[in-house]
Amino acid sequence: MADNRESKPLMTGYMMSTQLLEVDGCNRCQECMKWCPTFAVRPDRPGITPMYKNARWRELMAKNHSLRAKIFGGKPLNDDEMKIFTDDTYSCTTCGVCGTVCEAGIRTVDLWEAMRPNLVDRGDGPVGKQSFFPKLVKADRNPYQAKQDDRLCWVPKDAKVDQSGEIVYFAGCTAEFRQQALAVATVRILNNLNVDFAMLGKDEWCCASAMVRTGQRAVMAEHAVHNVDALKDAGAKTVLFACAGCIRNSTVDWPRWYEGYIPYKSMPLSVFLREKLRKGEVKYKIPLNYTVTYHDPCHNGRHLMHEIGRDWAYEASRDCLQSIPGLKLVEMVRNRELQRCCGAGGGVKAGIPDLALDMAKARVIDGEQVKADIIASTCPFCRRNIMDGRTDAKSSIKVLDVVELMAASMGLDMTIPENPYTKYQEQDVLVCGPEKCEVDTLERQAPGKDLVGEAH
Amino acid sequence: MAFYTLGLTFEIVIFLTVIVLAVWAYGIYFNFKKWGLGSTGYHDPLRRSFWLFLATWIHEAFKDGIWVFLRTVVLDVLLLRRTLARSPVRWVMHMAMFYGFLALAALSGIGLLLDIVEHYNLAGYAHEAEMVKDMMALPFDIFGYLLLIGATIAISRRILIKFVRDNTTAYDALLIGSVFLITVTGFYAEWMRGNSFLVGNMFEYPIYAPHFALIHTLLALGLFAFILPWSKYIHVIATPMTLIANRGGE
Known about the structure:
Low-confidence stretches of chain A: none
Largest interface: A-B, 46 and 47 residues
Strand order of the largest sheet of chain A: 5-4-6-7
Low-confidence stretches of chain B: none
Largest sheet of chain B: none
Order of helices and strands of chain A: HHHHHHHHHEHHHHEHEHEHHEHHEHEHEE
Number of helices of chain B: 11
Radius of gyration of chain B: 21 Å
Mean pLDDT of chain B: 88
Helix content of chain A: 40-55%
Number of helices of chain A: 21
Number of domains of chain A: 2
Number of strands of chain B: 0
Structural class of chain A: alpha/beta
Oligomer: heterodimer
Number of domains of chain B: 1
Radius of gyration of chain A: 22 Å
Structural class of chain B: mainly alpha
Order of helices and strands of chain B: HHHHHHHHHHH
Shape of chain B: globular
Distance between the termini of chain B: 53 Å
Largest sheet of chain A: 4 strands, parallel
Distance between the termini of chain A: 34 Å
Strand content of chain A: 5-15%
Mean pLDDT of chain A: 93
Number of strands of chain A: 9
Strand content of chain B: under 5%
């Protein structure tokens, strides 16, 4: 039997009353349209821009909450209208540049993330493969259908990783199962710097970023509480993240769901490494003669700059890159709080992959315009998507993580030990000799694709 | 010179003013109640309350303390810092319209009070009230021109800049057009009285000046009470409230 969705009014339950105020606060100045990276690649769809989304939400709400509705009764919501609104709302990567430039000071990321669960509850959202996220994560505690017992299967035998300690490295699902070069590089650097650190192993659950971003909050509470408790049990005082999605969730989202005291601070790995650089503990051996541009991940930049400060959000990674001998850092035209999103976030990579790809290509062009050999980032999802964009655009540009560049220049062995997930590795890697490093591309050996993309 | 025309008496005008203010106040209450359909915090239960909207707004506005609140009011609401950061031209436009509109609204309110004092000779101050009203003519002109400059920039942008023009809806056109029309009719009503600031007696036509003033007043009050709270133009109220609630935004 067909459901009776049309008769359901637009839900407002996940919106704070001040967020409903924000919708009316949009003064239609159009500034967001100039910066929206999604609209830039879909100029025929102004409905995806914040200004139009606010207007549409207002119109839909008015059907049951306007003066006319009060006098003459509410109108049912039209399914076609709702579908258009849902598509537009889910075409957003929640990158937040609209909030940065908004004249009305609307906190757009929170606003979109509050609109989406209302659509999910009403049965309109999510879109595409996004609906797999909660099922996968609930069943396996990661989105890759990998075994939790394999969380540390990539750790080299000669590496030292503790089970508890004041410093904990929270690697994240993508680094542990799909981009292990990053995880290996991180462990190698920390060992080289004589940092005693722990990892949670099978007690590390997915940060659940994808669920929050796509409005599917049901699994979130369980994962937030579990991860915070696991980190507390491990004795963490500082938790290091080399994944922008994970640190955004740890800093912003987990505390919203965790009622107790959180005794540790979340720190981007680049900030920790910069401290070591300043103390003179990092010793480089191999110059990297590449022109590198840095892509600021939205989750670690705009999403966090007001929580952790601009220096941590934007400058630490750049300082790390500039410390590498031979490396020339150049800036893309759009950088820091005005950077262009790669297109992977907000569930777009899983839900609307062709849109994510077009956005990634736009970012690759940004990199090519400044004649960069490498686009470096600190987000595995940005990396995945920009690599896909690079391949589709047939560009020669390479995509690497800041940590891997540092580890290579330090002359560390970044060989990934053979493990059940070796066949799924697909990434650019640095292959180093005693005096020189070269970028190689690791091709995926196993056919087929993941059920959901390597991106939130 | 008689201000009231077409059979309107002072009492009728006061009565209509009360009606207009009541409609406006109900419109604001209606919007506050609509915003109250939301929750009071992240994953908090729904309350559906006018009062809890106010409580939530106050809580958010003062979350970072009184100094952040004051800083936001001064820098973001009164000086439109975020607009200046993005576009100096838009900043000039908004500042001109914002302060022009606010000052004219305040002067109109004061003028109405002085009318009441003068009409009923309250405390014997009828003469003084008339003198003050005469003194208000110049500020009325200055802030009127300010509003006119802002509205002219706004219309010019919408017409001359392709990106802005392409994304202008009927709503945008109606609002800016209305503000422009109201400003122009206000000036014309003033000029028809003669001996006006900058134009002298060029447009003097005192017989019809009250009629034109009435048209201007009806348009202004119509926009103020019967359109602003019931349409997306509520942003005039909602934008400053948003800036304050978000402590200046991201």
